[in-house]
Write a structure and sequence with these properties.
Blueprint lengths: L1 E4 L16 E4 L6 E8 L4 E7 L6 E7 L5 E7 L3 E4 L7 E9 L11 E4 L1
């Protein structure tokens, strides 16, 4: 989202006129409703999510318990496929919304067990 920011000075008695506004852009919202479907025969996971405000694209990531990235995929839509997942692991799947300057948070949102 875009915001206009102005500054005024107040010394307790007087208040200045607002400064010339500048425009800032917030980071995109976190993607919601993240789901995973594991394809056991190919060690891939189909990841889907709901679109988030302000996003130009998305990056889905699978990490292990030590936050080491094991797989990732990028999409302009609301799904992508994580490939070459290791067997026999519990992985955190996160989706980060991207824009031209900032990213949303990447807190674990789903779990897949390979």
């Amino acid at each position: 989202m875009n915001y206009n920011v102005t500054v005024t000075r107040n010394d307790g008695q007087c208040r200045s006129l607002p400064s010339t506004p500048i425009q800032i852009q917030s980071a995109p919202c976190d993607p919601q409703n993240i789901t995973t479907v594991l394809q056991c025969d190919t060690n891939t996971a189909n990841v889907t999510w709901a679109a988030s405000a302000g996003a130009n694209g998305y990056t889905a990531m699978a990490t292990d318990g030590q936050q080491q990235r094991l797989a990732s995929c990028h999409s302009m839509g609301t799904s992508c496929q994580l490939t070459s997942l290791p067997c026999g692991m519990r992985l955190n799947v996160t989706v980060q919304a991207d824009d031209t300057t900032c990213n949303s948070s990447s807190q674990p949102k789903a779990v897949v067990v390979t």
